[in-house]
Amino acid sequence: MSELVRTDLVERIEQLITEAKKRAVVAVNTAMVYTYYEIGRMIVEDEQKGITYASYGKETLKNISKHLVSKFGKGYSVDNLERMRKFYLIYSNSATPLRNSKNLQIKSSNSVEDVNSATPLRNSKSTDLHFTLSWSHYLKLMRIENPDERKFYEIEATENNWSLRELQRQFDSSLYERLVLSRDKEEVKALANKGQIIEKPEDVVKDPYVLEFLGLKELPQYSESELEQRLIDHLQTFLLELGKGFAFVGRQVRFTFDEQHFRVDLVFYNRLLRAFVLIDLKRGTLKHQDLGQMQMYVNYYDRFVKTEDENPTIGILLCTDKSDAMVEITLPKDNNQIFASKYQTYLPSKEELKRLIEENIK
Predict the structure, then answer these.
(1) Distance, C-alpha 85 to centroid of its chain
(2) Could you read off the pLDDT of 181-204 as tens digits, one per residue?
(3) In what helix (H) or strand (E) does residue 104 lie, and over which residues does it extend?
């Protein structure tokens, strides 16, 4: 018994140390982001003392870089100092600071302060700013020209704890443009200020879904079962594509009704909506029979699976082709449970999506 207690104690101590190391890494990374912001501010303010930027860039930055590299390493090259300058210029003009700041914040009292240790980095002249991502994340974000799009990805990366790779994937798959296409002007504004808000079934549905990670685009033919298997093999990325709040329940989930067996391709649960989400995969053109089948699946879950305190079940048919008119005439007028969306196995063209956005705005 005593040996079991000692083993449990060791495991708890190991967990404590591991978590402490993780927090230390995050704290160091966050401190560096604020430091780079301050360096950028110092460079810009010094530059504004009447020195033209052309001569400043060629001479002063080169001399500063040479000194810093000799003392602190190659992280302070001229190119990196330029990035710090750009970082300050972009975020000193940010009108919407992020919510949920962690550990460090730039305060209007002219200091950068660690909330836990109260150790300041002096001379900041910005309003409150909250940096919650790594420097690598901000290097990616700074390359996004549209300020609203940049703020959207920053909020989503923070709230969903996206790695740099996940942020890159969501940007490459044009998540922002795809969400803009399905929203009115007020909801588009909310995307930039609040990120994606999940309050009703329509909020979790995309059209199209981008499944480029499956590697199917080079195959001339593939079956629905192979599509399903690929999604399971890449479940983590598929969950990222589905969006906020999704948890995987099962595949080919069987239920019996009137002595007949039925199987739902994929079953998820969305904890934000507190509802089951059923997904059926369809190759080719969507037919009205497919919608009828999904209606039956949804009805069954609403009547026999979900609990009284859970919200109505959501059904999503993923297909390669669909007729919006056929979907509209097949489903009830007040439908807010069943949705049909296209999926594509290649990354969308940002230019094409932006053109569609401009057309919709007009």
Answers:
(1) 26
(2) 878 778 888 898 899 999 999 999
(3) strand 104-107
